[in-house]
UniProtKB/TrEMBL annotation:
Gene3D superfamilies: Ribosomal protein S20. Pfam families: Ribosomal_S20p. Belongs to the bacterial ribosomal protein bS20 family. This is Small ribosomal subunit protein bS20. InterPro entries: Ribosomal_bS20, Ribosomal_bS20_sf.
Length: 114
């Protein structure tokens, strides 16, 4: 147990900071999961609404990551890495979406020419 006033205050400050850090980290994880769910939904049934939802979820997650970095909860590089992973997921989803669209168009053109 702390013996001095300054040690007692440091314990209180450390606890307050720990709870703040925990809240930010939890929010980042939650928003990341929501974003991944939105991408999965969009891949299953692509539409303009689902695409907009994916963009909104990405924006919310990136914003929360930036705030966590600004407050010192996450390191700069850790925040950049997380944002990179989020954008890579979106790019992969768009890639698979365009591939499936191209395959459908190609099979339709083959059917017409046959």
């Amino acid at each position: 147990m702390a013996n001095t006033k300054s040690a007692i205050k440091r314990i209180q400050v450390a606890e307050r900071n720990r709870l703040r850090n925990k809240a930010y980290k939890s929010a980042v994880k939650t928003l990341t999961k929501r974003y991944q769910e939105a991408i999965t939904t969009h891949e299953a049934a692509p539409s303009a609404e689902s695409s907009q939802l994916v963009q909104e979820r990405l924006s919310a997650a990136v914003s929360k990551i930036d705030k966590a970095v600004k407050r010192g909860v996450l390191h700069r590089n850790a925040g950049a890495r997380r944002k990179s992973r989020l954008s890579r997921l979106l790019k992969a989803a768009e890639q698979s979406d365009s591939n499936s669209t191209a395959a459908v168009t190609e099979s339709a053109s083959e059917a017409v020419s046959a």
